[in-house]
Amino acid sequence: MVYNNLMRLPLITCFSALFLIGSCAIFVDEYQNNQKEIIDFLLADLPIPEDSKIKKDSTILLGNGDNVSGRILLDSKSSPSENLIFYTEQAAASGWELMSSKVGQEITLIYFKNGRYATLQMAPQRSFTSFMVGKINSSINISITFDSPFQGLTDNTN
After folding, report:
1. Strand segments (E) across the chain
2. Which of 8, 51, 55, 154 is the most exposed, having the fewest neighbouring CB atoms within 10 Å of its CB?
3. Which contacts qualify for 148-152: CB closer than 8 Å, 24 or more apart?
């Protein structure tokens, strides 16, 4: 009888650990879903690649609509060149005008729309897994700024 109880303890521990690990994946996916909804609401006119994951420690947005500024950091399963094609097509379709670009190992695109600038920097992100699969992922840094530092502020001096 004591032997059976001792055998159950490792099984219970193993199943508990599997449950906790599985639960963590649910919370991470929920965070990603919530953040993408918030970004879609605050910055609806700037496309975000579907395969991207938001880096929560470094992402911050202030304001809404045409008065949004801040930074979004993403990890994408697409290569920098694939993301270059995505942004070239999708940003133009959303009304963003390409002002400047630099294409090399790292890619920088600067777009303008409604008094706002969006600077997109895409860099290769190499890992052991991507090396084994033969695919390079991307790190994307998106900065949104105003044409004027006071845009979006109202004048209440009447």
Report:
1. 52-54, 60-62, 69-76, 97-103, 107-113, 116-125, 137-146
2. 154
3. 148/115, 151/67, 151/115, 151/116, 152/63, 152/66, 152/67
Tens-digit pLDDT profile for residues 103-138: 999 999 999 998 889 999 999 997 776 667 778 899
What is the residue whose two structure tokens read 């690649």? 49
Residue 15, burial from CB neighbour count under 10 angstroms (0-12, 13-18, 19+):
exposed
Total Cβ atoms within 10 A of residue 88: 13
Torsion sign over Cα 75, 81, 85, 87: positive
Q: In this predicted structure, what is the pLDDT of residue 25?
A: 44
Share the mean pLDDT of the chain: 78
How far is 97 from 40, CA to CA, in rounded Å? Answer: 19
Model confidence over 50-87: pLDDT tens digits? 888 888 788 888 876 667 788 999 999 999 999 999 99
Q: Where are the domains of the chain?
A: 10-146
Residue-wise burial string across 134-147, b where 16 or more C-beta atoms lie within 10 A, e elsewhere: eebbbbbbbebbbe
Tell me the residue type at 146.
F
Supply the DSSP symbol for 77: S
